[in-house]
């Protein structure tokens, strides 16, 4: 399928107008041709189109130590908004389950894996997802990130290398957070 320039530009424009990063992440992944590997696609069939709205305030009311509360604390401490997706993108959510799932679970990966939101943290999450073999597009993204991130954040070079190795090691373990 390849990169679709018009939908990618539309995703960027939408993000600038609305600030809804979930919509942007879904449209960007879809426009870049992100698709699940056949093995993962079969496992994702059961969650096709499932993207409940994440309410951080509600999650903060959960008991201490629960995943919901820890996730909400991660979001608030990093000043992040959940990657909620608007209902108007239902067709894309149904058609490209991987793009939807990766968009709405991205910060969950950070929370579960213990990676921050710096370039070093992002490469750790990306290395994990690529090693889990979720999508060929993640391996391409990781190759690009290995080159770009040290250039974009020279003081993080060591941390980028360490998190790259840690993410790959974690990703080689038999765990799959994509389908929960």
TrEMBL record:
InterPro entries: Coq4
Protein name per Swiss-Prot or TrEMBL: Ubiquinone biosynthesis protein
